[in-house]
Amino acid sequence: MNTDPTATELPRRLAVALWGACCGVLVATAFTAATIAVRGDTQDRPHPALLSSEYLKLYETVPWQERYERQWYALVCVCGALGAWATTRFGRVSPLLAAAAVVVFVPAAAWACRAVFTAEFAAGRLLACVGVLALPVVLSRVMPAFPRERHSEAPAGMSVPRTTRTLWLTAGFLCVPLAGLLYGLLGPHHVPTVASECNTELHVASYLVGPALYYRAPGLAPGLDFESHYGIGHAHAFSRVMGSAGLEKALQRYVLFVLVVSILYFVSAMLVLTDWLRNPWAALGVTLILVTTTCEGLAYNTPSCWPVRYPFLFAFLFCAVRGAASSRWCIAAGGVAGLSAYWQTDVGLYTLAAGAALYVAHWLFLGGSAWRAPLFLATGVGSFFAICTAFFGPRVLSPLFVERLFEPLLLYATGFGNQVFNWSPGWGYWYNLAGPALAVASVGAMIGYARRDGAPPRAVLYGAAASLLGLAMLFKWVNRSIDILWSLNGGLVVAVAGWWLWLAWRGLAMQLASESRPLVGYARQVAVACAAVWLAVIGVRADGRAADPNYQGGSSSPLVRAFTWMDTFRNPINAWRKGIRPNVHPSPLDPESVGYVRAHTRKTERVAMICGAEWNYLTAAGRAPRLHWLQLFLVHSPVLLDRCADDLRHADRVFVDRGALANLRGVNPAAHDRVAPILAEHFELADRSPTRWDLYRRKPGPTAHK
What is the end-to-end Cα distance of the chain in Å, rounded? Predict the structure, then answer.
């Protein structure tokens, strides 16, 4: 008979840990309420680092709740993990009562937070939450307490971990149809059509195509010579495949680049989840849930919404959990974290923080090596600088380079958003409380293992590592609490929830199995599974009927938004279903203007251009931008404007689109007031193209560029 030590005990441990995490949520909420009451700071404030402009007017005012929401979330992560640790290590609470209390606590806590974050008196609501969490302590005296973990037998009819060979053969086989399904769901129905729809999309330029253009000029370093706003590696990698065949071909390659990276991400999720759950079919199910929860925000005109932002998350988890017991794997995890930091700065920093927290917790609570965290951080930081030095030279080994990488993060961390937490009944319960609490409880469940019990199972390490990184990534959503941002950044929290569901099913299936009558056991399991599916279908339909169609994204339900996306996204499946035909949009550029830019510049020259569509013309001409921030019309901070003005002042020639200065005055007056005097003082009109360009050259004399 086979043994499975975690099938029943681990779900109980997690239930008690979740109750302890909710205790931490209550502490964090009470502390935040007291802080707001003492400070009395409930006035909105202007953003300290934004230029006043037409397109930024929605972000110029920062709601007063922003700083307290960040404080509350950080406290939830810390206090919740400590609460989960204390209850799993020392508590004697009935898991059944703990789970029931959590179900009641979540809406009660949202009710209390609704008062706290509107500066209302919340003492009564907080006391009600205390009463809810106290009930399991009182009632556990007459009900079974949380048992110590022990090995248990798996009756006949209950599936047990399969052999490694079979496990990975099955997983590899399932990856093939998964990749095909991903192409059918995520792929463009017609690459030239979808690429042509990105012709005028500014986000395509700022995230990927624009930064990639700079690498056409040799010797440039991101941050030091230009602003690669979201990170380095994604744009640098795309620059290697972008080609020089014009705007249309570059955008087609952009579409394929985003698609390929996204498919590889989900396939890596499938493989790592197989190692985590030890069941490839369960891993496939959780992967499909990840795809469903992520897809609602996907569109090729918003590339930062795709997994191209974080393609190495699951590779990091695979290495990190093994690094708890192996220095070599710890070094590998640091290398993946360094690669993530090179690829996208914020995700890399979250990865470094999560890995360090995992190894520090493993040392403090489980008796692991004290050198794991320093080794991980040294490897991560070292590999980041090694990659950057290899690609961009020794100039990146400077404090200025690091400072420039942190600038966008600090800008957005000061309240670049106007959406606060939604505490109304509904999916806000999951986004604000239940999802983060599950992740926090998973961390507490890991550190709650006593040293005498030995190392936690690898699945528990996976849960803790994924939770730490998932919680860190959700800080982006905390700063701008739009539902879709939660879906885009909370994928690892969803994976943790999938693990919890898988554990619950395994424990229930073991209870339903029968050693003496296997067929009866299988019949019970099938009946319960069918009932669960039926209840899920009813729940989805009820959620769809209750959803508000006027909410952000078209519905207050992420399920409605996801299913709507699946039905309307122009992918190969829908093209086959609905007969969607190619419809290539005409290029917004005129060939004569593109040819004029090429004729008056060198192939590797950085070109200064004042034009609302400068990224289009520079991509079509195959030239690198001269200004520090591409899209001068959308420059959003005084620091970036200063650098753009300095670049313009030292340019040799400037291409000015006729009428561009007047448009700039209307869209971004601060930028116009800096640019127009420089153009008048340092440059003179040298040529006028037949189409749109006024070519300015530097005036001779003392203002000439040295």
Answer: 83
CA distance 264 to 105: 39
What span, in angstroms and rounded, lies between the C-alpha atoms of 397 and 390?
Answer: 11
The one-letter amino acid code at 423 reads: W
Could you tell me whether strands 61-62 and 653-657 are parallel, antiparallel, or unpaired per DSSP bridges? unpaired
Residue type, 238: F
Contact assessment for residue 153 and residue 136, using Cβ atoms and an 8 Å cutoff: no
Instruction: For the chain, count helices (H), then strands (E).
Output: 30, 7
**What is this structure's pTM?**
0.93
Cα-based torsion angle of the residue sequence 122, 123, 126, 132 in order, rounded to the nearest 10 degrees: -130
Phi-psi region of 579 (alpha: psi -120 to 50; beta: other; left: phi over 0): left
DSSP letter, residue 226: B
| Paired residues of 3 in beta bridges | 153
In whole numbers, what is the pLDDT of the chain averaged over residues? 89
Tell me the per-residue pLDDT of 378-419, one tens digit each, with 9 for 90 and over.
Answer: 999 999 999 999 999 999 999 999 999 988 887 776 666 668
Give the residue from 693, 608, 546 showing the smallest Cα distance to 226: 608
Cβ atoms 370, 398 nearer than 8 A: no
Residue 685 tokens, joined: 């009109």
Sign of the torsion angle spanned by Cα atoms 398, 400, 404, 407? positive
| C-alpha count within 13 angstroms, C-beta hemisphere, residue 332 | 17
Nearest one of 461, 492, 198, 236 to 339, comparing CA atoms: 236
CB of 423 closer than 8 Å to CB of 456: no
Smallest CA-to-CA distance from 340 within 360, 355, 358 is with 355
Q: Which residue has the tokens 């006035």?
A: 43
**What is the sign, positive or negative, of the torsion defined by CA atoms of 32, 38, 41, 47?**
negative
pLDDT at 509 > cutoff 60: yes
pLDDT at 485 > cutoff 90: no
Q: What does the alpha-carbon distance between residue 232 and residue 606 come to, in Å, rounded to a whole number?
A: 19
Distance CA 137, CA 127 (A): 16
CB of 671 closer than 8 Å to CB of 629: no
CA 221 to CA 215: how far, in whole Å? 9
Instruction: Give 199's contacts (C-beta < 8 A, 6+ positions apart).
Output: 247, 251, 585, 587, 588, 616
- Strand 653-657 with 693-698, pairing: antiparallel
| CA nearest to 113, candidates 65, 67, 74 | 65
The CA-atom distances, in angstroms, between 700 and each of 649, 651, 703, 705 are 14, 13, 7, 9
Beta strands in 553-644 (DSSP E): 606-610, 624-625
